[in-house]
## 1
Amino acid sequence: MPITAIPKGVELRKITAVQKRALDELITKERGSSALTTAVLVGIPSIIAGSAVLAYVFKDEMKKWFDEQEQKVKDVVKNVVVTAGETVVETVVEAGNKVFRNDPTTPEVVQGSTLTRCTRWAVDATENLSRVQAGNLTRTEKVGLATNLKIIISNMKSEGCSRPSAISQAQWDE
């Protein structure tokens, strides 16, 4: 049995649910606001004030947590960018190998000596890396040379060539 506040002049007695709703509506109209409105008006400032107090008290812990989250987000973004870049390079290398006839740029005959394809690829790799080591390259040129080296390595592997000394084991294993 619900208990509720009864306006002056009304006697207290057992009421049904329908009567209670009607009585609540009457009381709301007399007051001009509902209990929900009152709770919201009191609750929102309390929540804001409480949050401000908590933020002040735990400001150092919150700053540390946000710094950790920032680094995690940066790491995730970096991994996404690196993975996307690797995927693009691999796609370019595969497409280049399928579309274009891949021949070493070093000629087959040099100073009267006939070079094998593997030797020609090794010379291409050495010249490619010497350009990188010489420096003074734009980012675009560096990306182009790195992509070119991946193409050279891919072709050398597909033709059964051994790793030349100009290419590191890490580059060869990629």
Note: DSSP finds six helices and two strands in the chain.
## 2
Amino acid sequence: MTDASPSSSPLPPDPIAYDSERNKHARMRGLPGPVIVGGTDPSPEVGLREERKYLRLLVWMVAIIIVAGFVIGIAIALAFGV
């Protein structure tokens, strides 16, 4: 198992990434490396598209549950003459 932390990397850290706000906070918290590895998505549009798809699915599921509740309630009321 290899350690992928930047402190064990043979390459020096990127000076622009070193000065980022995120890495300044990491150094203040005492994290071992000079920069936080990862966390940058090269193509965020793919993930956002998938999230929108699941959000639409969630909205449809909630709407179906609400409508089904009304339909079942009306069916019970009609069946038992309430």
Note: The chain has two domains: 1-40, 43-82.
## 3
Amino acid sequence: MAGEGSAALTDNVNNRRDILFWIASISGKIERYLNRSFLIQSRTEYFDVTNGLIQYWLEAPPVISITSVNVDSTGLFTGGESELDDSEYYIGSQTDSIVLVSPESWAGKRGLKVVYTGGLCYSAVNSIYAVTPNTTAWTVGNFCIGGTSQAVGIIRAASLTSMTIEVLYGLFEVGETLTEYTGEDKSGATAKTATLDSKTQTSLAESYPDICLGCDMEIRYLAKHRHDYENAGTNKDGTTLRRGASVDRRLPLQPEVIDVIDPYRRIAL
């Protein structure tokens, strides 16, 4: 977030207190609105079994792998459950569900247990790149700027063949030349360059930049109205127009934010 005009936002306790709180709050709010969990990790979910139903939608698509599937008509899963063979289920065609080859012939609460790995990213901002070997490893804390994409990031870890970059903005491109600087504005070139050979792991900021943009837009709105959240406008006489009752405010986020992130909303039947 920029300060006034072209000035950088001052890094102080007050700004950090507001912005870091907003990041956590709005990130969670966007996850709840999109009805999905972002981080790729192992997850365990339980489902009510419906007689004849073969497809169950998971909370953190896309699904990368399924570790195990168990059924228990008691719903307890205390040792009496049955584990399905991996030939008895598969990942759905849209990678957002598990499909049973043969449906269960009974119905019960919490009767299906699925352990799987899924999600959109391993990190919100950190991407890992394989690079052409450098004679000298880059300096952690300096800036990395793409020669073609003009993307900018901060070096968080570096070896001769790999770099972890905290992506600030832009999308780095495979094959482009990366250059190290001490300043974000390309000041302080260090003469260290590398070629981005491949992306080992991409962050949410690179893979799904519109989700990050939506978070940024909502936080900018909160920053602008940090002292008058409840006000919708001002009359000519200086009195404020307050927002209506909660029944009149059905959108959990600003309409423009929803326009940006809505394509990623998970609709589960």
Note: Residues 41-118 form one domain.
